């Protein structure tokens, strides 16, 4: 059958929400539309309508404004306006104006209703709350991750083989076989009878069947070899090989091309392939002897971040994984310094601040840290801690956690102080907040002990929280600070839309997406005297108090997870391309759906910021 | 020559006297749209024909596409596309333009069957075309041949309107300037890839809406007389 109006059908088929309609519905849809033309500067929606419609922009642009004529949203080609069908899409917008000559399709609300009733997927587009959509978006991100994690294990084992097969004849002696294994630095060797694979021995066989059994090493190797070998073909998938190993409780599998041996697959090969697992990296950190060793480990952090981003890991877990490795690096650096300088003369605790403390680091974060020293410190101890701090901060810098641009580091005399001195700092910051202290708040109001006397830290922390809990003036200052970074309104074509109507080619997803939520969570945590430092934990804890509704708390958690995932994916792509990862996202790297979800996440932040603003201005904050 | 001095209404009555029955008789029995009707009240039929050539005496109509404008909105529910069967092969030079193959044309209906429906759709309405010579002359020729009387209708021609708009702004008109698909981008109208009678009729209808909104920033001042070609 010939499809009339195919241009219009195809246009709709590409765009949400119509993209989920089945073929048949789509083919009929154009016949139901009316087309209008709005010259630039016309009122939108067109005032002289006989009934209510949804509007779809075919070309042109429309700006939606609130009662103060502030821009709320800008629709471009493919933009859909459903407000007149009693659907809330652009919240505070009360009027619109076409800013370009605009061609509109209009669809009666009555027909929209019919479509919604007949197509659940289409209906979901309108019925879902921001909350449901964000939850779904976060879930989808994680599902996709699991698939690609599986994809990593669907590589053929032939790609994992590093060496040509190491073989020796069955008539060789045990000693000869052991010598060959040492020479080649392998833990197993395959035994050949002519061209045929007859058996194999491993380190364990040498230990158990030869040495422990008191067998002479001059005996033929066939005396201790394992026969009836399980093998895999070279085109076997890694995941299947792993399952075979697990089932047989073996760590080695000969790899064959038909009857011919092509290599040996070890459990280590598989594990190494699976991930640059954070557990492996942490082990390597503990084993490191020199600064160079540590730098080598931290050089693998971008790869870890990349692999985690491609696996099922959430942004929350990736932040935790990277931060925990930074913790290990810091501890190892302190141990190495102490080994040289001797033990500390008085108790102290090394604290990290900022993203490391919150467990939200990425592989290219800078370092924020401080030293809290017991009040027993004497003037002659100053030099010890100064040297210690310098060693560790230099070490972290060498490990790619670059010096803090604001010098918020233990190497700065100011941030290497006794408990009484820190107490004084916090007293001033809390009782007489000023712009400087607010600037430092994102570092020093997010503190966590990494190494040393944790009691010392806990004492300081409980004193801080006692002072901030229920402190109206301080909270008001922090709340005002949390309104500094505003999320974008949304996207328009290849631009990012900002509040004053300005356009940008890219946006800083960290400062416009993540920082606002971190700041909001800090306000709640401090004003309620909550101990968690991680943003998600802070929000969940705050949602248990009267300051934050559970729904809003969950929305913020989901918004953060989605935004942070977009950032991690953006950086993973840059790492893959070998460019230095950054926080600048361009709208054209985003799919329609990602734009929509990001806009939902921004909306959650905007709503929270507005609530904060009105509460704070009303002076009702307690 | 006489026709130029007669009103369309009297031309309609003269033609009506020549036919006693049939589709053209019914068509001509309906009064034409008055020139004074406001745009908001107009019913306009945007029409496009695909033909085997440019000569109405020799060439044939292969298809027509139409869509109505009411209340200055294109009503897609009124859209119609009809292929017309002809008893000869489609010349290759025209097939390049309209992409209608002989096989497709064979699925059409004869002009004798298609014309009554087309006339019914046009009765009492205004015809909108881009370059009126083709549609007017081909339908006129068909009416004369089949019914023995001429075809009369008020016509809006977007090509004529475009020329007037160019001249009013003292723009020099270059080759191709006035073609439908070169005019559309000036009004920020999308580029349609498909080229058939219906999509051209739709493209013309959208162009007319754009031109009308340019000519009449206040829609209440807009009336048919301002658009008529003659």
Would you mind describing this structure in some detail?
The complex is a heterodimer of chains A (622) and B (230). By secondary structure, chain A is an alpha+beta fold. Chain A is built from 23 helices and 23 strands. In chain A, strands 1-8-3-6 form a four-stranded antiparallel sheet. A four-stranded antiparallel sheet of chain A has the order 2-7-4-5, with no helix packed on it. A four-stranded mixed sheet of chain A has the order 17-16-15-18, with helices on both faces. In chain A, a hairpin with a 2-residue loop joins β10 and β11. The longest helix of chain A has 28 residues. The N and C termini of chain A lie far apart (68 Å). In chain A, 40% of the residues are buried. About 1% of the residues of chain A have low confidence. Chain B has one domain: Nucleotidyltransferase, domain 5, CATH 3.30.420.10. Chain B is built from nine helices and six strands. A six-stranded mixed sheet of chain B has the order 4-3-2-1-5-6. In chain B, α1 packs antiparallel against α2. Chains A and B meet through α1, β1 and β8 of A and β3 and α9 of B.
Q: Layout of SSEs?
A:
The complex is a heterodimer of chains A (622) and B (230).
Chain A: H1 6-13, H2 23-28, E1 34-38, E2 43-44, E3 53-59, E4 62-65, E5 71-75, E6 80-81, E7 95-98, E8 102-108, H3 109-118, H4 120-127, H5 130-152, E9 167-169, H6 174-184, E10 188-193, E11 196-202, H7 203-211, E12 232-233, H8 238-248, E13 252-257, E14 260-266, H9 267-274, H10 278-287, H11 291-298, H12 301-310, H13 315-341, E15 348-353, H14 354-358, E16 369-373, H15 382-398, E17 416-418, H16 419-431, H17 435-444, E18 447-452, H18 454-468, H19 472-482, E19 490-492, E20 495-497, E21 503-504, E22 507-508, H20 509-528, H21 535-542, H22 550-577, E23 584-585, H23 592-617
Parallel strand pairs in A: 9-10, 12-13, 16-17
Antiparallel strand pairs in A: 1-8, 2-7, 3-6, 3-8, 4-5, 4-7, 10-11, 13-14, 15-16, 15-18, 19-20, 20-21, 22-23
Helix pairs in contact in A: 3-4, 5-22, 5-23, 10-13, 12-22, 13-15, 16-18, 19-20, 19-23, 20-21, 20-22, 20-23, 21-22, 22-23
Chain B: H1 8-16, H2 23-29, E1 43-51, E2 61-70, E3 73-85, H3 92-98, H4 102-106, E4 109-110, H5 111-122, E5 126-129, H6 132-147, E6 155-157, H7 158-168, H8 180-183, H9 197-215
Parallel strand pairs in B: 1-5, 3-4, 5-6
Antiparallel strand pairs in B: 1-2, 2-3
């Amino acid at each position: 059958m010939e499809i009339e109006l195919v241009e219009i059908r195809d246009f709709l088929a590409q765009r949400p929400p119509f993209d989920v309609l089945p073929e048949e519905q789509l083919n009929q849809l154009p016949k139901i539309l009316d087309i209008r033309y709005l010259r630039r500067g016309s009122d939108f929606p067109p005032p002289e309508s006989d009934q209510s419609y949804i509007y779809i922009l075919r070309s042109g642009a429309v700006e939606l404004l609130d009662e103060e004529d502030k821009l709320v949203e800008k629709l471009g080609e493919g933009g859909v306006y459903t407000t007149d069908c009693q659907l809330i899409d652009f919240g505070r917008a009360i009027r619109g104006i076409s800013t370009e000559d605009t061609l509109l399709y209009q669809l009666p609300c009555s027909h929209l209703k019919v479509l919604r009733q007949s197509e659940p997927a289409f209906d979901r587009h309108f019925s879902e709350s921001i909350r449901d959509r964000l939850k779904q978006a976060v879930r989808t991100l994680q599902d996709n991750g699991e698939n690609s994690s599986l994809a990593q294990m669907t590589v053929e084992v032939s790609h994992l083989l590093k060496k040509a097969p190491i073989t020796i004849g069955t008539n060789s002696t045990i000693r000869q076989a052991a010598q060959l294994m040492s020479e080649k630095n392998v833990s197993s060797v395959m035994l050949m009878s002519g061209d045929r694979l007859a058996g194999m021995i491993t380190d364990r066989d040498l230990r158990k069947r030869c040495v422990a059994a008191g067998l002479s090493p001059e005996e033929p190797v066939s005396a201790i070899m394992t026969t009836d070998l399980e093998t895999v073909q070279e085109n076997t998938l890694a995941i299947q090989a792993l399952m075979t190993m697990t089932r047989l409780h073996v760590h080695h599998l000969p790899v064959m091309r038909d009857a011919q041996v092509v290599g040996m697959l070890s459990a280590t090969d598989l594990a190494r392939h699976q991930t640059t697992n954070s557990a492996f990296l942490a082990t390597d950190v503990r084993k490191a002897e020199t600064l160079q060793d540590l730098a080598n480990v931290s050089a693998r952090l971008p790869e870890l971040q990349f692999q985690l981003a491609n696996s099922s890991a959430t942004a929350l877990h990736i932040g935790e994984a990277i931060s925990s490795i930074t913790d290990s690096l810091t501890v190892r650096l302190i141990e190495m310094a102490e080994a040289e300088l001797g033990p500390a003369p008085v108790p102290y605790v090394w604290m990290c601040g900022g993203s490391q403390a919150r467990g939200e680091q990425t592989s290219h974060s800078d370092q924020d840290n401080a030293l809290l020293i017991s009040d027993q410190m004497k003037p002659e101890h100053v030099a010890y801690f100064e040297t210690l701090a310098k060693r560790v901060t230099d070490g972290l810098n060498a490990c790619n956690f670059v010096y803090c641009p604001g010098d918020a580091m233990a190497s700065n005399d100011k941030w290497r102080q006794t408990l009484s001195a820190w107490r004084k700092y916090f007293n001033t910051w809390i009782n007489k907040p000023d712009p400087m202290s607010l600037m430092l708040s994102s570092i020093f109001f997010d503190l966590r002990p990494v190494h040393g006397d944790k009691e010392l830290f806990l004492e300081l922390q409980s004193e801080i929280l006692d002072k901030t809990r229920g402190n109206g003036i301080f909270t008001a200052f922090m709340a005002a600070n949390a309104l500094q970074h505003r999320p974008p309104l949304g996207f328009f074509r290849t631009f990012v839309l900002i509040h004053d109507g300005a356009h940008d080619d890219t946006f800083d997803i960290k400062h416009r997406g993540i920082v606002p939520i971190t700041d909001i969570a800090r306000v709640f945590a401090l004003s309620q005297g909550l101990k968690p430092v991680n943003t998600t934990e802070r929000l969940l804890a705050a949602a248990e108090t009267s300051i934050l509704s559970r729904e809003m708390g969950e929305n913020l958690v989901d918004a953060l997870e989605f935004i942070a995932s977009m950032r991690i994916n953006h950086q993973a792509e840059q790492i893959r391309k070998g460019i230095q990862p950054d926080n600048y996202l361009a709208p054209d790297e985003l799919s329609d759906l990602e734009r929509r979800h990001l806009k939902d996440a921004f909306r959650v932040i905007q709503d929270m910021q507005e609530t904060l603003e009105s509460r704070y201005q009303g002076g009702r904050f307690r | 020559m006489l026709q130029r001095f007669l009103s369309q209404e009297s031309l309609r009555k003269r033609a009506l006297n020549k036919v006693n029955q049939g589709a053209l008789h019914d068509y001509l029995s309906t009064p034409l749209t008055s020139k004074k009707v406001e745009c908001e009240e107009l019913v306009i039929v945007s029409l496009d024909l695909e033909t085997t050539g440019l000569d109405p005496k020799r060439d044939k109509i292969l298809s027509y596409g139409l869509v109505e404008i009411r209340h200055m909105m294109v009503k897609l529910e009124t859209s119609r596309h009809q292929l017309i069967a002809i008893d000869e092969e489609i010349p290759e030079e025209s097939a390049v333009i309209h992409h209608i193959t002989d096989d497709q044309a064979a699925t059409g209906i004869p002009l004798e069957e298609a014309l009554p429906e087309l006339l019914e759709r046009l009765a009492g309405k205004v015809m909108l075309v881009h370059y009126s010579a083709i549609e007017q002359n081909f339908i006129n020729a068909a009416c004369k041949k089949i019914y023995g009387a001429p075809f009369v209708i008020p016509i809006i021609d977007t090509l004529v309107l475009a020329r007037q708009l160019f001249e009013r702004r003292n723009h020099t008109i270059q080759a191709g300037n006035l073609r439908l698909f070169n005019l559309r981008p000036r009004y920020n109208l999308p580029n349609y890839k498909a080229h058939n009678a219906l999509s051209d009729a739709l493209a013309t209808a959208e162009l007319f809406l754009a031109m009308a909104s340019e000519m009449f920033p206040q829609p209440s001042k807009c009336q048919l007389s301002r658009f008529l070609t003659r």
